[in-house]
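Hi there, hope your week has been kind to you so far. Thanks so much in advance, here it is:
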Amino acid sequence: MKTISRSVAAMTLVAAAVASSPSSAGQPSRMMLHGPTSQPIGHYEFCQQYADECRPSGPLGVIKLTSATWSKLIEVNRTVNTAIIPRTDQDIYGVPEKWAYPTTEGDCEDYVLLKQYMLEREGFPRSALLITVVRQTSGDGHAVLTVRTDAGEFILDNLDNEILPWAQTPYIYLKRQAENNPSRWTSIEDDRNLLVGSVR
């Protein structure tokens, strides 16, 4: 019964997203981008190792949100969240920061890299799958995957199996990959009125 309910809820969200106006509950469906910013050091080092993953590739575009594409997003998000055991880079590699494709364990950036990789191999355009750096309500940094669709931008998160519109997540959005170049990053102007304590 729970599985059926979640499936119905997922299909309802797809229908609502496709039919919705540019904003949902008064919030923007797309992030406001502010301009070029620095590439995270972990991603820079990742690009030195996986140069092909950081070159512009394919036409720019967004994902057409259908029941099939939504189901694939849910499948990949849950599969990776379930398969990978959360551990810090310090525990795994003995260093504070290292971005890598995980096999059995990893931290938030590793979850994102694997989801991005899997979805791109399913035919989703790279320009619609953007690694995004956010700040949690605790003040800690975190990484999620922003999925750009024709119905708005959605977030795949290792802390949540549910896929939400970006504006309905409890994060402050800081920066993300540029749509036209995976090795370039763009700052995000997140001026939503969130109750996030002392996070600035």
